Amino acid sequence: MEALILSCSTGGGHNAAAKAVQACLSRKGHHAILLDPYSLQGQEVADKVGSTYIEVVRRVPRLFGVVYKAGEWYTKLQERFPHHSPVYLFQRKSARKLRDYLQKSQPDIIITTHVFAGEMLTMLQNQGMKLPPVVYIATDYTSIPFTQEVSADCYVVGHRDIMKSFEAAGLPRWKILPYGIPVSEAFQNRRSRPDACKALGLDPSLRHVLLSGGSMGFGLDGMIQLLLPVLNRHPEVQLLVLAGSNAGMRARIDAKYTTG
């Protein structure tokens, strides 16, 4: 089987899930290509899209929050007055490039882990292009804005408890599959708790809580503030914080909270 996996570099989760799918398909003997559709306009364009998104989230998170809320409002507006969003229309040039690529490559299945790529595929379908089965994999634990603009044969979501948020976005329940978010096979290699603590330099007598802000370390400071009262009441609990690739956030957290 020839599989095409589409992802974009606006955060690491989309690419991590895409790479996990690619690795799994390859192990099973299929040929799987991972592609950032923006790279069809040149790698500079793909890098610019990814870096701009990441810089906004890291440097002005409040602005990102405002844009996200605006996206939620726009989604609700679309339910009453169906129309294409500016985000959908932004994909027109990339969709044309993707059309040319698909006409040459002829994959048997297309898997996308990003809403932007999903909108490109939907645009091609709306223009009359016949596509192979399309699978949309959601890498967030909720239905993010503009998910309803992605037309796919099935939608893989992280857990059955979040299916309702995708139904609320207008997706058919029978197309929503609560299979979880794909992860690397490396996570299947289990260690005993004492061995894991020893490898990480952790005190095995303590209980550990892991807090992750994703690849960009988003929202960590606020979450730590919420957890501090609980941690102060339970000295036997140690909080472990993952800041992803956000070195600046890690430095700020180290300076503000690290003890000993």
SSE inventory with pairings:
Layout: E1 2-6, H1 12-27, E2 31-35, H2 43-59, H3 61-80, H4 86-90, H5 92-105, E3 109-112, H6 115-126, E4 134-137, E5 154-156, H7 163-168, E6 176-177, H8 193-200, E7 207-212, H9 220-233, E8 237-242, H10 247-257
Parallel strand pairs: 1-2, 1-3, 3-4, 4-5, 5-6, 7-8
Helix pairs in contact: 2-3, 5-6
How would you characterize the overall build of this protein?
- The protein is an alpha/beta fold and 260 residues long.
- It folds into 2 domains: 2-177, Rossmann fold, CATH 3.40.50; 190-257, no CATH class.
- It contains 10 helices and 8 strands.
- Helix 2 crosses helix 3 (61-80) and helix 5 crosses helix 6 (115-126).
- The model has no long low-confidence stretch (mean pLDDT 88).
Characteristic terms for this protein:
Rossmann fold, alpha/beta, 2 domains, 260 residues, 8 strands, two-stranded parallel sheet, six-stranded parallel beta sheet
